[in-house]
Amino acid sequence: MVYSPDYLVKETTVQVETNVYSTIAPDGQLAWTGTSKTSNPNSITKAIDSIVGLLVKSMTKANII
Q: Which burial class, exposed, middle or buried, applies to 48 when counting CB atoms under 10 A from its CB (0-12, 13-18, 19+)?
């Protein structure tokens, strides 16, 4: 017997990778990288605002900005 539910659940996962390169180094070396993952965002604008806030905190902590 196989069970088949009568409903379908849609899930959305958004993954953003941010890379910051040094402009001082001649070859543009990677100075900082970060990856964030958001599941089922209700609003794209709120998700972007949240990601930007986390990026600023992380880069500030790492003395990048």
A: middle
